[in-house]
Amino acid sequence: MFFTSVVVAEFLTSPLEVLAWGTMALFQGAREVLPSLIACALLSNLGASITEVAKDALVAEYGLRYRINGLQSYALMASAAGGVLGNLLGGYLLLRTPPKISFLVFTAVLSLQLLVSLSSREESFGLPRRKETSSVVMSVKKQLSNLMEAIQEEDISQPMIWAVVSISMVPLLSGSVFCYQTQVLNLDPSVIGMSKVIGQVMLLCLTVVYDRYLKTLPMRPLIHIVQLLYALSILLDYVLVKQINLGVGISNEVFVLCFSSLAEILAQFKILPFAVRLANMCPQGCEGSVTSFLASSLCLSQIVSAFLGVGLANVIGVTSSNYSNLPSGIIVQSLAALVPLCFIHFVPMSQPVVEKGTKRGLSTRSSRCSRRVGRVIRQESVAYRRVRESEEAQR
C-alpha cells in the first residue's frame, strides 16, 4: 500500500520538478527574472518535499516488515552518497558549461527518476497491496485513525515534539551567511560547492559511525551531545564573519571548505535516532504513516526556522550592503539552539527493542503494571527458593 503511495507521489511531484528545471533551461527569462525564478524554485522544492515524505514512509514500511532494524541509517547513507555525487556533478557543470546546459541535465535526471519509479513493480518490494474491495477513502480514514492513535502515545509524541521544536525554534541565517561569503568575502562559488561535498562526506561518515558504534548508546545523552555540538558549530560562522580565522593563519577558502557545512550536517544527523525510534515504536500497520507525519513535521519546522531567520535578519538590520550586525544574529542563533536542552527530558533514554510480532501501542500504565507484576512474581519465586534451601539444610 505504501509503495503504491510512493509511485503516486512520484507521478505527481516529479513532473513539478521537471517543469521547474525545464522552464529555467528553455526560457532565459525564467532564470533571470526574480518572480519566475522564485516560482520555479517553489515548484521544485514542493516536489522534492513530497517525494522525501513518501520515501521515508517506504523505508519504514519495508524495514519493519522484514525486521531490518535501523534501515533509516542505510537510507541516510545512500542520501549522503547521492549528495556527494550530485554536488560534484553540479559543480563540474557550473564550471564547464553554461547554466542552460546544467538545468537541462538536471531535468534529464529527474525525468529518469520518474521513469524508474513508474516502471518499478510493487511485487518486487514484497509490500502488502491494498485490497481491491476497499476504497481509497476508507483506507485513508483508517490510516488517519491509526495515526492519531499512535501519536497520542507519550513514547511517540514526546520525542517527535522535541525533534520538531528543536529545529523550528532556531532562526536560520544560512542565507545571510551565504550572501556574506559571496558579496563581502568574494569567495568563488566552487569553494562553497565543494564545502557542500565535504559536508555530505562528513554526514556519510557520521551515519556509518552511528550504525556501527552509537546506536546502542542511550539516546538522551547522545542527542544532548549532538545538540550541544550543533549550537557550538553555529559559532563557526561567527568566527568567519569576524575574520578570527585569519588571525590563526586559516584562509577564508580553507575555513569555508572544512567548517561551513558542519552545523547543517549535525542538524540532519540529529534526526536519525528519532526516525529509527519512532519507526520501531509505532503500532503495526502504522509505520509508514507515523514516519510520513514525522517527515512532514520536520519540513514544516524547517520552513518556520527559515521565516524566523528572515525576521531576525530584518530586526538586526542585516541587508545586502550592511552585515555589521550579522555576528550578533549568529550569537542569537547559537543561544536559541541551546534552549531545547532545557526540555531534553522529552527524549527517552534508550532505543526500544521491539519484536515485529508483539503488540505495540500499549498504554504506559498497563506496561508499568506488567513490570510490577513481574517483579512481584520474581520476588515470591526467590523467597520460596530460599525457604526450600533452608529446609533441605536442616534435614
List the helices and strands and how they pair.
Layout: H1 2-26, H2 34-65, H3 71-96, H4 99-119, H5 136-151, H6 154-168, H7 174-183, H8 189-214, H9 219-241, H10 244-247, H11 252-259, H12 262-269, H13 271-281, H14 287-316, H15 326-338, H16 364-394
Give structural notes:
The protein is mainly alpha-helical and 395 residues long. The protein is built from 16 helices and no strands. Helix 3 runs antiparallel to helix 8, helix 6 (154-168) runs antiparallel to helix 13 (271-281) and helix 9 (219-241) packs antiparallel against helix 12 (262-269). The chain is globular. The N and C termini lie far apart (68 Å). Residues 354-389 and 391-395 have low confidence and may be disordered.
Short description:
The protein has 395 residues and is mainly alpha-helical. The chain has helices at 2-26, 34-65, 71-96, 99-119, 136-151, 154-168, 174-183, 189-214, 219-241, 244-247, 252-259, 262-269, 271-281, 287-316, 326-338, 364-394.
